[in-house]
């Protein structure tokens, strides 16, 4: 029986985004504050996913052995280090979150049956790498607060209460929505980036956070005048808003996860979604220059 097990580890390290062939001004323009000397640091959290058959002892692998491999090959070398100098792989390709995850895979693959390396730079930014060349996934998490009412516009109040219960009450209710946007792309062999993080953040802000935050979705977002703003429909609509602008900066939208409350969330995998269909007359925000 195949099973996937996960092992958590962590390390603290600093890094700097800096090209020696560029001037200080050019590096600042390209990488912003991340180019500042002598660098900046993070408390990285690492999850290693391993696959295999259950043995007679009920284990895929002895996790104590796994812990020692991760420490020997990765965390003992990276903890309290300056990443740009610690591994030769970071001399040519900068130690971005996605590239660190890729190189960690390379270090561990000869020793462990890997299926995924997931690396959190902080709770709102993380990368996933699954061993596919230079391809990786990068996730940004953010949030917005909004109210909604679950009621189909062509049904009576009684019919809506039968379907949606208390969520159909006429004055609506609110949530602090937590949004995760995952993009897929190729890691650049020089910058270490699969996408310009500043541009991606700006797209999410311009297309979702600013238009959605502190709104009554049914009234303030035209799409939800005709479509019930369930978490599923909100996630689908967000995926349709973001797909094209993310393509324009060189990545592809992979997944939208919307957490409505600690009890309710949904995920939209964008490869499973038809091409965007935004109703005529619904304006889309103009992307700010970054």
List the helices and strands and how they pair.
Elements: E1 2-15, H1 24-31, E2 40-53, H2 63-78, E3 81-82, H3 83-86, H4 89-92, H5 97-108, E4 114-122, E5 125-129, E6 135-148, H6 157-164, E7 173-186, H7 197-212, E8 215-216, H8 217-220, H9 223-226, H10 231-248, E9 252-261, E10 264-269
Parallel strand pairs: 1-3, 6-8
Antiparallel strand pairs: 1-2, 2-4, 4-5, 5-6, 6-7, 7-9, 9-10
Q: What would you say this structure looks like, in words?
A:
The protein is α+β, with helices and mostly antiparallel strands and 290 residues long. It contains 10 helices and 10 strands. It has helices at residues 24-31, 63-78, 83-86, 89-92, 97-108, 157-164, 197-212, 217-220, 223-226, 231-248, and strands spanning 2-15, 40-53, 81-82, 114-122, 125-129, 135-148, 173-186, 215-216, 252-261, 264-269. Strands 1, 2, 3, 4, 5, 6, 7, 8, 9 and 10 form a 10-stranded mixed beta sheet that branches. α7 (197-212) runs antiparallel to α10. The chain starts with a strand and ends in a 21-residue tail after the last strand.
Which descriptors apply to this entry?
10 strands, 290 residues
Average predicted local confidence, pLDDT: 93
What is the C-alpha radius of gyration, as a whole number of Å? 22 Å
* Low-pLDDT sequence parts: 275-290
Query: What is the overall silhouette?
Result: globular
Fraction of residues in helices? 25-40%
Structural class: alpha+beta
Q: From N to C, what is the helix and strand string?
A: EHEHEHHHEEEHEHEHHHEE
Distance between the termini: 50 Å
What summary fits the major beta sheet?
Answer: 10 strands, mixed
How much of the sequence is in beta strands? 25-35%
Number of helical segments with 4 or more residues: 10
Number of strands: 10
């Amino acid at each position: 029986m195949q099973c996937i097990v996960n092992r958590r580890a962590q390390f603290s390290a600093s890094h700097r985004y800096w090209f020696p062939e560029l001037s200080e001004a050019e590096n600042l323009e390209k990488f912003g504050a991340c180019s500042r000397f002598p660098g900046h640091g993070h408390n990285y959290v690492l999850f290693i996913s391993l696959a295999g058959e259950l043995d007679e002892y009920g284990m895929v692998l002895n996790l104590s052995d796994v812990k020692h491999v991760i420490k020997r090959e990765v965390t003992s070398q990276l903890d309290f280090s300056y990443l740009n100098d610690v591994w030769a792989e970071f001399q040519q390709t900068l130690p971005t979150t996605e590239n660190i995850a890729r190189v960690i895979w390379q270090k561990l693959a000869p020793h462990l049956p890997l299926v995924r390396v997931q690396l959190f730079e902080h709770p709102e930014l993380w990368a996933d790498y699954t061993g596919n060349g230079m391809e990786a996934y990068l996730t940004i998490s953010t949030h917005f607060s909004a109210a909604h009412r679950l009621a189909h516009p062509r049904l009576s109040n009684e019919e809506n209460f039968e379907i949606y219960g208390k969520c159909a009450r006429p004055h609506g209710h609110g949530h602090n929505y937590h949004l995760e946007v995952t993009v897929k792309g190729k890691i650049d062999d020089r910058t270490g980036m699969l996408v310009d993080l500043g541009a991606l953040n700006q797209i999410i802000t311009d297309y979702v956070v600013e238009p959605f935050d502190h709104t009554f979705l049914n009234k303030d977002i035209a799409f939800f005048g005709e479509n019930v703003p369930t978490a599923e429909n909100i996630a689908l609509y967000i995926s349709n808003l973001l797909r094209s602008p993310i393509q324009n900066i060189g990545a592809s939208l992979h997944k939208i996860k919307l957490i409505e409350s600690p009890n309710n969330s949904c995920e939209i995998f964008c490869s499973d979604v038809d091409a965007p269909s935004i109703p005529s007359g619904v304006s889309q925000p103009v992307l700010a220059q970054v």
